[in-house]
Amino acid sequence: MHLTNTLTEYGIISKLLHWLSAILLIIQIPLGFYLVDLDFGDERITFENIHVIIGLTIFYLVILRLLNNILNPKPKLNPSIFVGQKFIAKLNHVLLYVAILSITISGILKKLFNGETLVIFFKEIKIKDNFELADQFYNIHIYSNYTIICLISLHILAVIAHRILFKDNLLKRML
After folding, report:
1. What pLDDT score does 1 carry?
2. What angle do CA 47, 51, 57 make, to 5 degrees?
């Protein structure tokens, strides 16, 4: 197994970043939905702090993944895959990154405009309250979450479709 990507397979770094992101998103999305229905209190504060820590971790992982993609180009897709599939695959990946960044940045800005303090890149940040902006960023946060759920579903369905319909085991490259 290679540390970096080859022409046919992802390396350990790419696989680790991918699966860590996936696991954290699988935890984070339901946790966010759970938080929506919690009344303010100790339990909400505890779960919200966990949600923020996981969200910031995902944010840092995505930045690392984007740097890794620049320094460590992805393996080539099978030449038998037609151009439309390649385009859809690339578009889905780009939109996944955009959605994740949108979710984390809107969540960060929502909390900051609510008057809370966050530590980002080892620096404590606090800005002036603006509850109207906080509400707008909260809406972006919510819509981005629904978007990422759709994009993740398409991502998983594409892997299944490739396995069943095209007899192409794309998942093998990422395991």
Report:
1. 74
2. 145
- Tallying the residues shown for the chain, one arrives at 175
Q: Please tell me the distance from the alpha carbon of residue 165 to that of residue 82, in angstroms, as a whole number.
A: 14
Alpha helices in the chain (DSSP H): 12-36, 42-71, 83-113, 131-164, 170-174
Q: Each residue of 86-102: b (16+ CB within 10 Å) or e?
A: eeebeebeebbeebbbb
Q: What is the pLDDT of residues 123-142, one digit of tens each?
A: 999 999 999 999 999 999 99
Q: At what angle do helices 12-36 and 42-71 cross, to 10 degrees?
A: 150
- Give the Cα separation of 92 and 97 in Å (integer): 9
**Distance separating alpha carbons of residues 149 and 155, to the nearest angstrom:** 10
| Rg of the Cα atoms in the chain | 18
